[in-house]
Amino acid sequence: MEWLGLYNYWVVVALMMIGFYIVIAQDNLIKKLVGLNIFQTSVFVFFISLAYLEGGTAPIALEGVTQYSNPLPHVLILTAIVVGVALTAMGLALVVRVQEAYGTIEEDEIHQQDDLH
Amino acid sequence: MTEHLPALQVAIGLTAAPVVMMLGRSGRLAWALTTLTCWATFAVALALFFEVSDGSVITYQMGGWAPPWGIEYVIDAANAWVLVIIGMISAVVMPFARRSVEREISASRIAMFYCAFLLANAGLIGITVTADAFNIFVFFEISALASYALIAMGRDRRALISSFQYLIMGTVGTTFLLIGIGFLYIMTGTLNLGDLAARLPEVADTRTIRAAFGFIAVGISLKLALFPLHLWLPNAYTYAPSMVTVFLSATATKVAIYVLLRFVYSVFGFQFSFVDLSMGWVLMPLALLGILVPSLVAVFQTNVKRLLAYSSVAQVGYMILGISFASTLGLMASVMHLFNHAITKAALFMAIGCLVYRLGGISLTHLAGAGQRMPWTMAAFVTAGLSLIGVPLTAGFVTKWHLIQAALEGGYWPIALLLLGTSLLAALYIWKVVEVAYFQTPDDEHAQVKEAPLSMLIPTWVLAGSTVVFGIYGNFTVNSARAAATALMGGAP
Amino acid sequence: MTDASLILLSLGVPLAGMMLIIACGRWAALRDGVTVATAIAMFTTVLQLLPRVQAGERPRLELFELFPGLGVTFEVEPLGMVFAMLASGLWIITAIYAIGYMRGAKESHHTRFHAFFAIALFSATGIAFAGNMFTLFLFYEVLTLSTYPLVAHKGTAAARAGARTYLGILLGTSVGFLLLATLATWWLAGTLDFTPGGIMAGRVDPGHGSILLVLFLYGIGKAALMPFHRWLPAAMVAPTPVSALLHAVAVVKAGVFTVLKVTIYLFGIDYLQELASSDVMLYVAVFTLLAASLVAMRQDNLKARLAYSTVSQLSYIVTGALLLNQIAALGASMHIVMHAFGKITLFFCAGAIYVATKKTEISDMNGLGRRMPITFTAFFIGALCVIGIPPMGGVWSKWHLIMGAFEGGYGLVVLALMISTLLNIGYLIPPVVRAFLLPPKESDAGGGLREAPLMCVVPIAFTALGCIALFVLAQPLAELLGGMFVSAPPGAAP
């Protein structure tokens, strides 16, 4: 059962699909953002798990340590997390403005008020 | 000093942005500083362009860290060309922006607006100059975040929801790109585009690399609004402030196309993309539909900004079509169109900006009689419109000529015919505007409208005029496009 | 003056004239004077080029280059010289006639009318002097666009509908077929320069060549090959001077001129003989020639009848181009001139009848000949010229065409030309017979009817005399046109 051994990737795929589904299926703008976050998180997990090496430790230069995880993806994901936070902030700010302008954050209700095709 | 030009290209804008924001009190000062920044950036872009015009390649190691540890910036004929496009558009749009932004953005936000604009600009430049795959992702997000903010500042409340739609779709796109980059990294252990190109052939025949290619292609296609992934674009362009529409329509999709070209031609290589994966056959039907359907939709629009937004989707189709021919000539046509369409569409949206400034709106009913009230604005609109159609002696024609030559070279006669047919569609939707503007009498409300202010009119005419200049003296664009195509075909930066 | 400056001047004079016309729009007399002066200035400029072309020179001008090998260039060769002289010469007469007509018929917007007329002449000159297919295409489109406001001049619903058909067919065919053919030629042959003997031989295989020929001939919608001829009758909603100059001379002749240029200078007669589609297109032209004559017989509206007659006569020229020998091509080129003089006379007469009597239907014209003797005599002369009966110029072009058909061994074409001549008589002579021989209607019997104003009648007399003069002048014309086939003109720069 080798493919079960790669369970971390299955988790990534599951998270990705859940997130993507929420983005598409939900009308509520906040829920869409939540979905987007799950979607992004799955990618973060993906990067971190591909850096992991069986039996490796944290990438800190210590005496006697020869095997450690690849630090580069960690660094990348730190950056990506920052980007993700910025995006979420931006998205939430927009949702607040939408609430002020339309009095609702449900997409179908917004479309009833304004013709957006 | 000159060896730091590649870094300066990005750094000038990024440094100026917070300063501009701190000038919050005075919108005028913020504008002046932003303008200076854009001009400086353009000057740097030109310097770089001339430096690589002999076919040389400039490499620059950020902070002195050599790859594979550090981030490398590489300038060749291809991205220098894109830098010139971005630089030129932002340099021309800034003088135009002053009055337009004062009218459309509340005074307290003007400084923030220009700050966001500088970030968007720097982000796009960063995408273009960097030779690091992850860095491309980061700059994509910088420019995208700033663009979401810019679009949301539109006066209509629909701008908010348009911006949100763009945020969702844009983020999905860049995340796809990130996944693809992750795959590439597992297989090659590098993020440097040059190293990627060198190491990929060994592992090219694996499912992982093919998946990486798929994720990257789809992710970028979302950003460049390839039909049918274009849904965010018409709303975003329609409800954004005039100046933002000008800037984004001329640069954002172009940069995304450049990234696609870089990955497809330089990183994955011609053999992998077009021979092994037959990418041409995937892109061609999408491009053709992408030309035809949005052109037809555009014919039925009553909001002129929206009409032009759909036309932008169609124009993206032209550029993708050139790529799908999988030939040097086709690639040349696409690269050429990056420039020709940028000046054409920017001129059109600037004319729209002038009309909005005086008329307050941009549906066809607003435009009645605008030909007599605002003759110079409308003349610019018509001139750029001719270029959009692809009339001889305009920039658009130079592209169409090469694109059709590429179609004939590939033996696609029906496509050549279709391209001419869609030019007629473009003629139809431009004519629709012209007919209303010149042959209808204005209603009482708009009868007293005056010509747009000179500070807006002159930049509009600079671009409208250049569509004619580059239509008559096509050698510059043709040669630059040839150099860029050679650079792209030749390998990674 | 140098060659280049003469060519520039020929193009610049009508443009400058247009601006002056607009500037003088407020003063009717001055504006009309400017119009005529521009026409005369243009004709004299064009005439300066004639001796050089006769001497075998080919004046050239490269205006600018879009990208390597493709530019806007001009080169004056015999056919273009003849076309330019024809268009600019007849403009003088038409300008005078138009002033008389526009005032007589109380049309509005004179300034716009004369201004666009000048642009149309500018583009006709551009077509005549074009040195490559791209330049020709450019001016071809300008001509289409600049004549649109002239066709729609009256501004009524009918006028706009007619103008829309006009624009739709001409733009559609030219962009869809002509531009495609041009692009394909560039791709296959690598050049678009008009070269004696053609550019395709040895570069384009006959299979592609056959397709290109069809694309070119249908793409040149102005040549009105069936089924793309509908625009010509539709354009008859225009005021008569427009119909006269543009739809008897400038526009339609630009079409057949382009056909001749394409067949002689792009394909080359020898190369065309290898193509499978040459014969097919020849019979399309012959069919158009007969069918349009038959349709013309059934028209009661005089201008509509003349329009269909034009469709038919244009096909004479296309037929001549496709008979693929020098005699026929010469005949076709001469027919451009002969038909122009004949048909412009006929249109002028139709306009004069309208100005004087407001009549447009042939069945209403009984007995008018006695009131308007000059007009109807001129009509008779013009008709004879178009039919091709001595002592009119038209006889020579038809003679060459029939000789060419004999030489090519096309018996059917000879027969068709003969039948068509009979049909020509059948539809062009009855109006004259009605006017002179039948008694006038009772309502017309009063004394109110007389000749149109002098400014209308003098041009008519002039062109009618031209029809006769061409009978004598055919020889020098043929000599000039013979230069078309000389591949390396003597004295030309290498």
Mean pLDDT of chain C: 84
**Architecture of chain A, CATH level 2?**
Orthogonal Bundle
Our count of helices of chain A gives 5
Low-pLDDT residue spans of chain A: none
- What is the highest CATH level, the class of chain A? Mainly Alpha
Q: Could you name the CATH topology of chain A?
A: Helix Hairpins
Relative strand content of chain A:
under 5%
Count of strand segments of chain C: 2
Model regions low in confidence, pLDDT < 50 over at least 5 residues of chain C: 488-494
Along the chain, the helix and strand elements of chain A come as HHHHH
Instruction: Based on Cα principal axes, name the global outline of chain A.
Output: elongated
Domains of chain A, number: 1
| Largest interface between protein chains, with number of residues from each side | A-B, 30 and 27 residues
> What oligomeric arrangement do these chains adopt?
heterotrimer
Q: Assign a percent range to the helix content of chain C.
A: over 70%
Explain what you see.
The complex is a heterotrimer of chains A (117), B (493) and C (494). By secondary structure, chain A is mainly α. Helix content of chain A is 73%, strand content 0%. The longest helix of chain A is centred in the C-terminal third of the chain and has 32 residues, at 71-102. Chain A is elongated. Chain A starts with a helix and ends with a helix. The mean pLDDT of chain A is 85. Chain B has a domain at 278-493. Chain B is built from 21 helices and 2 strands. Chain B has helices spanning 5-22, 27-52, 77-104, 110-129, 133-152, 158-188, 193-203, 207-224, 232-239, 242-267, 269-276, 279-299, 304-324, 328-359, 364-367, 370-373, 375-389, 395-409, 413-439, 454-472, 475-490, and strands spanning 58-61, 72-75. The longest helix of chain B has 32 residues, at 328-359. Chain B is globular. Chain C is an all-alpha fold and 494 residues long. In chain C, 73% of the residues lie in helices and 3% in strands. Chain C contains 18 helices and 2 strands. Chain C has a two-stranded antiparallel sheet with strand order 1-2. Chain C is globular. The interface between A and B is medium-sized, with 30 and 27 residues.
